[in-house]
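In this section we turn from sequence analysis to structure. A common task in structural bioinformatics is to predict how a protein folds when a small molecule is present, because the ligand can shape the pocket around it. The inputs are simple: the amino acid sequence and a SMILES string for the ligand, here manganese (II) ion. Study the lines below before reading on.
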Amino acid sequence: MQLPIYFISDIHLLLQTSNNEDAKKEKLFLFLDKVKKSQGTLIINGDLFDFYFEYKHVIPKIYFDVYMAISKLTESGVAIHYLLGNHDYWTMDFISETLNMTVHKDDIDFEINNKKFHITHGDGLLSWERGYRFVKKILHSRLTIWLFRWLHPTLGYGIAEWVASRSRHFEHSKEHNDKVRKELIRIATPIIESGVDYFITGHYHQHTDEKIGNGRLVILGEWIKTFSYAVFDGQGLELKKFM
Ligand SMILES: [Mn+2]
């Protein structure tokens, strides 16, 4: 893996255009330019898209400019690892072959410069998410995906939009965020004690860098308001905001 390694998650690119969305994309493209200049590696830790479902012959057209930017980046020689999130799990060969991203359906573990990384999107990790873990199994099952594929895309995307609009409350109370952070510290602690240096998660839309023993828990934040990302230069990991 080429250094530096950039980590980003939860961009939640929407299915409708708006001024906000244009500004978000503009920022994202500037960030991708920065990664390109560095000739390092990019790890997208899930939920790049607010909804992405790929059919054998059909892809969502709203993301055309994003596909172009990603394609330019991989063509320049930058490797992109795309760990799928709960909003963009349903990719096929357009993402992996045409855009040339390495797709990961599960957590990633790797070691570089004597530093061990554990990367997870993070959905379903918390102890009280038992119901969600069950739903996740169904949504990821081959049968569900096969059935969904037979719906007309307008209907399929309509359903997805409806579900997403009902769960689109990204702003959480401080109490909720504190509770989630404490739970993630509890979950990351044994993994860090087993020798992992950096436990990196997305999904929870709070940017946090917490020291645990000899390692760290990094919650990446989001690209809706904070525009946070992490970068590992070979020596240390830093959680930053993209200006
Ligand atoms: Mn998520």
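Residues 46-47, 85-87, 121, 123, 203 surround manganese (II) ion (CB under 6 Å). As an exercise, try to locate the residues that line the manganese (II) ion site and compare them with your own expectations.
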